[in-house]
């Protein structure tokens, strides 16, 4: 009986602001990362966003081990990078439960609950009031 060395695929999702990300990770042993079919720097356009998104892989020293395909939608680039970071953290926990403690220490498993506050009637924005006149 032969055993196949077929790569195992893991998937997870994450969110930030109005963005959602779905990550599909294969343990092929080679490093390849695509976001919506583009290289991370080409898609996110800012090096700091790419570094922030790849933080879970750097913390767990798994940057070179996986083939990663990320689909993001909604929001802007910062929200999409944050959503991808949370999704990467969640999928790494699925790969190995040992990563959970390390990722938790860096705060990478917690969803950032901050969202845009809605505009209220009688105000110009969420909290900005019209100019006050004494007379």
From TrEMBL:
Keywords annotated in UniProt: Ribonucleoprotein, Ribosomal protein
Name under which the protein is recorded: Small ribosomal subunit protein uS9m
HAMAP family linked: Ribosomal_uS9_B (MF_00532_B)
PANTHER family in alphabetical order: RIBOSOMAL PROTEIN S9, SMALL RIBOSOMAL SUBUNIT PROTEIN US9M
Listed GO CC annotations: cytosolic small ribosomal subunit
InterPro entries the UniProt entry points to: Ribosomal_Su5_D2-typ_SF, Ribosomal_uS9, Ribosomal_uS9_bac/plastid, Ribsml_uS5_D2-typ_fold_subgr
SUPFAM superfamilies associated with the record: Ribosomal protein S5 domain 2-like
Keyword Acetylation: no
GO biological process, one term: translation
Assigned protein family: Belongs to the universal ribosomal protein uS9 family.
Annotated stretches, region: Disordered: 1-20
Organism for this UniProt entry: Puccinia striiformis f. sp. tritici PST-78
GO molecular function, one term: structural constituent of ribosome
